[in-house]
Amino acid sequence: MPEFIPGLKLGDLFFHEAVKPILDQHFPGLQYSAALIGSGSEILGFDTAMSSDHHWGPRAMLFLSDDDFATNRDSLHNTFATQLPYTFRGYSTHFSPPDLDDNGVQHLNVIDSGPINHRIEILTLHDFFGAYLDFDPFAEVEIADWLTFPEQKLRTVTAGVVYHDDLGLESIRAKLAYYPHDVWLYLLAAGWTRIGQEEPFVGRTAYVGDDLGSQVIAARLVRDMMRLCFLMERQYAPYSKWFGTAFSKLAAAENLTQPLRWAMLAQNWREREVYLSEAYETLAEMHNALGITEPLPTKVSPFFGRPFKVIHGGDFAAAVRAQIQDPAVKRIATHIGAVDQFSDSTDLLDNAELRQRLKSLYE
Questions:
Q1: For residue 122, which phi and psi values (nearest 5 degrees)?
Q2: Nearest Cα residue to 58 out of 86, 21, 30, 25
Q3: Half-sphere exposure at residue 265, Cβ-oriented, CA atoms within 13 angstroms
């Protein structure tokens, strides 16, 4: 195996040293955008040598106008198939056909003759964003769009790299860079709502001998606190495989990683409560540092006279909701938040066609 090159670096080298010269020679004057965005661990910069065993390698995305796509798509594909080198920086440029028994995964296959089955995807901006987000990239982003776009997909279309941009891809990415202020407030409130709904149950379940139930709820609360940190630091959260890795790069991780881990490892609910309380108080201090509400209490206290210490997440949620000014956001009748906050179903988050149905939740 060649020395591992992170996918974004490999893609940059591949575009500028192999793809662009072919475009310049055979298609001079072609208007296009070129990038590496969307699915793939390399887009987030989290790929390792293990990533190279599936759906990874020298690749690029070439976006054309609708007219140029109709006219040039086949000739571009065939030109790359015959003009690309068989290997680039030690990696084959030839990919296997999609494995229908493995989610369409393609693998690098070494060949030394014949056309190359390359992964230079040739598409339009409408095609890509339509398939990936079920969204017209040149339309205005509505409130219901923001709440039904999976965060993990927003992260991957705004991460990666754009190599060349004649068609306005960067302006689309800028439009999706982060939530509008009042949508952000709504999501923060939803995050605090989730914490407020379950924080006393860590003790209540264990009180009746259900320590496994207490552990499960503690784990849910840990994840909700981590998601709230992404929101507070205005970063989209990735999907589960890279959730902890991305969290470790947040500023909040320095003070929260240990108590959150210890809460997960605690052997009884009292010990669990100590570490969760430490995390709650850190989260409350982070909230106050945002300056979006009047300062709120940063110390845990009993849950309405019961012997369970909580931060009273519902109070934080109410204070944040009170700051929302946008009438369209204020009209949302539920506190469920965005799709990622009430579901982690891969089938739901991956299927862009379901997004239009989800919009009815916010009417």
A1: -110, 120
A2: 86
A3: 6
CA–CA gap between residue 341 and residue 337 (Å, rounded)? 6
C-beta of residue 175 within 8 angstroms of C-beta of residue 146 = no
**Within a 10 A sphere around the Cβ of 117, how many other Cβ atoms?**
15
pLDDT at 2: 83
pLDDT in tens, 226-240: 999 999 999 999 999
Mean pLDDT (the chain, rounded): 95
Task: Give phi and psi for 308, each to the nearest 5.
Answer: -125, 125
pTM summary value: 0.94
CA-CA distance, 317 to 191, in Å (whole number)?
8
Q: Which of 4, 104, 120 is nearest to 51 (CA)?
A: 4
Give pLDDT tens digits for 142-191: 999 999 999 999 999 999 999 999 999 999 999 999 999 999 999 999 99
Classify the phi-psi angles of 33: left when phi > 0, otherwise alpha if psi is within -120 to 50, otherwise beta: beta
| Identity at 238, one-letter amino acid code | P
Of the listed ranges 97-106, 162-171, 220-229, the least confidently predicted one is 97-106
Name 230's Cβ contacts closer than 8 Å, sequence gap at least 6.
151, 236, 237, 246, 247, 250
d(CA 171, CA 165): 10
* Own/partner long-range contacts of 127-132 (Cβ < 8 Å, ≥24 apart): 127/69, 128/38, 128/61, 128/63, 129/157, 129/172, 130/352, 131/352, 132/38, 132/157, 132/352
